[in-house]
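Session log. Operator J.P. requested a structure for one protein chain; no other inputs attached. Running the standard single-chain path with token output.
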Amino acid sequence: MGNQQLTANGSQSRSWMYWTAGALLVLIVLLGVVAPGWLRHWRAAHDVAEISVALDLYRMTYGKYPLGTKADLCGILLGINIDRQNAREIQFLEAKPAEINQDGEFIDPWGSPYEIQVGDTVLIYSCGPNRIDDRGGHDDIKHDASGPAAR
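Structure written below.
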């Protein structure tokens, strides 16, 4: 069995077990320190991509992007007919209650609303861990759709 040392009675040596337990403990501590920040970043990037896909699905269904406030866009993508912009009440995106703030906006893992701008182009981003709106720059996590927005 490779590098494993066996004692006279056939069991693994204690030094091997202590080394393995120590390595596992170090790994667990490192994951506890690094993983939360990485997971939040990954979740924000995933959410931004999902919102982008939902907007594209809306555009393919209705021929244009929805317009309105961030709360309006959130409601429309969740299947609510706001200002007659989702007459078929199609749900383009699912969200848990914890992913929507009291104003009805999608929120990122740090509790800030996602920025969703529909104009000549579509820009979606999280303000990131510093919660400062850098307009998609610095530590913001963004998706900038290529091509003009259909109107």
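Operator note: The beta strands are 115-118, 122-126, 141-144.
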